[in-house]
Amino acid sequence: MRALSLRYIFPVYIAIILLDLNEFVTRSLGSESVLTTLIFIISLFLIFSARPLTGTDGRLNRAFLVAFFGFLFLGGIASIIEGDSSGLFKDVRYYLPSVLIYFSTYRSVMSIRSEGELYRIISIAAILIGFNAILILVSIGFNIDFHGSTGLDQVERAVGLYSNANRAGYVSTIGQSLALLLLFSGAVKRPNFYFWLYVLCLLAALSTFSKGTILLSMLLILRLLYLGLVNRDLNIYGVRRYIRRFAVMFGLILLGLAFGLLNLQSRLSDLQSQRISQVQLLLQGQIDRETTTHRSELAVIALEEMRETFFLGAGLGKFKKMDIGNGTHNVYLLILGEAGVIALILYLLFYVKWAKNSFAGRQFSSLRFASGNIMILFFFSGFVAHTLLANKPYILSLALILAALRIDRTIRMVQVP
Question: Using an 8 Å Cβ cutoff, are 91 and 317 in contact?
Answer without folding.
Answer: yes
